[in-house]
């Protein structure tokens, strides 16, 4: 039983991590974010992607969460010449990824060329070292960027990327994704300072 758990637990962790969002950010290194006090929103950028996020519910989930996160960082929303202008870009597109291993002659329980000889069991590389096909999936990217109103330059951008399995789940996950994106913003929430 313990031996089975040694194989099942890492596999479950690997599969669970496949659906998680990953976050990336970039900024102008010399920008002093502490000088900004107010913010506003630009219209979202139109995307030629699947229309998962092209609806009022998705927009509300993105804006409400981002507003809450920005206000927690000491910024105040205004329509009258804000210091920072934010906008978001939502993209869902089709991607391909290789499928590795499996049960069979080169997989988990069959002969494996990297084993110490022919036989059954796990070989070096855990039996998952060769692509056996491709699968299509939908990749979701939520990008939020901040533009300095005076210079009209984008000074910060962050992206959350993950798999969109279906529109409803992707839309319901937006608050979590936007919070993860805003964690990348150079100003920490007031409670963490």
UniProtKB/TrEMBL annotation:
It comes from the Bacteria. Pfam families: DUF4136. PROSITE patterns: PROKAR_LIPOPROTEIN (PS51257). Residues 29-186 form the DUF4136 domain. Keywords: Signal. Residues 1-22 form the signal peptide. InterPro entries: DUF4136. This is DUF4136 domain-containing protein.
